[in-house]
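Hello,

Our lab assistant flagged a job as stuck in the queue for most of the afternoon. It eventually completed. Since we weren't sure the result was trustworthy after the delay, we are filing this so someone can double-check. Below is the sequence as submitted and the structure that was eventually returned. Let us know if re-running is recommended.
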Amino acid sequence: LLEFTRRFDGADLRECGLRVSAEEFAAADEAIAEDVRAALAHAIRNIRAFHEAQRRPPLTVVEVEPGVWCGDRFTPLDSVCLYVPRGRGAFSSVMCMLGVPALIAGVGRVIVCTPPGPDGSVDAATLVAARMLGIDEIYRVGGAQAVAAVAFGTQSVPACTKIVGPGNVYVTAARSIVADVLDPGPPAGPSESAILCDGTTDAGNAAWNLLIEAEHGENSCAILVTHDAAFADRVAGAVNQRMEQLSAERRAFATEVLGRNGGIIVTDAPATSLAVVNAFAPEHLAIMAAEPWDLLAGVRNAGEVLLGDYPIISLGNYAMGVNAILPTGARARTRSCVSVDDFVKRSSIGWVTRAGFESLAPVVSTLSRDEGFSAHHLAVENWTAPEYRRADGRQP
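-- returned structure --
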């Protein structure tokens, strides 16, 4: 891990080691600006309020017929690695988005892997966010080597049952390779967005929403879809104007993304625009229209759908409360955004009374005989009825 970090991240960790120390947490706490600390606290508050509503009861049961009970039992995962990326930017927001639902779920052991800067340091805001959440086991390692470390375990990095969080193409590929050993979590990264417009919104605001994901990095993807050609022209002009306000690095990313991986698509009708969006199945979808809730009814595939004329993707990425760790690469056709459910597992629970057994036994006997499984039907036909501890035979 030390060698790969030196080779790929340009950081020499031989003196500081892989795990972030208590002294580094303290230094980060001193270094961070108060407005950043307040912003993190505000974001965490909203993220926690939203995800608390996703908390599952430990056990739910339903009587499907007299004497036959079926249920679900939810238990937290034993250990999870939260992957917080770095390189194209710092991502304390990702620390918040991952840490809150993991802790609400009650995961037994939560660790964090995040790439170091060239000097070996970890982003100060990320450390402060982790401390706010109560997470203190952080390792300064990223990339494919971090995925391998938490899949198999090393002398210094523990093996985990699952890894969750966005990453670049190398992280995504590594997860696929070790999927038989480590639950790779929902696919997330590189970033992508679609802006669905009907031509009634402000072209400048639409341009900003288009640029938000385009500035993430050269492998990102950002498109705007509209059936209004004149509006598309206005947005294109607004994008060129606003591009000049970006930093040189972000302007270079956005220029490459919009020239190679995205741009503006003009369709012949609103229904066609919806068809394009559903085929793309974007990570982020912003609907900027006169009646956004009407268009929402036609959206089938999107990691998240954000409505309104505000810079809604920025709000969702940082502080609204919805989780911004979303499926990418068209996987929103079948996968969901990160939630508390990603940090728990479900076990089916079944229980029958004598009345339930007597009702089900002939069904099982008939079906298992038809399928040719002898022990199944012989068991129900020859079972010795137990003496029940409760006279009513009901669920305890």
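-- support follow-up --
The delay was a queue issue, not a problem with the job. The result is valid. The two ends are 52 Å apart (CA to CA). The mean pLDDT is 93.
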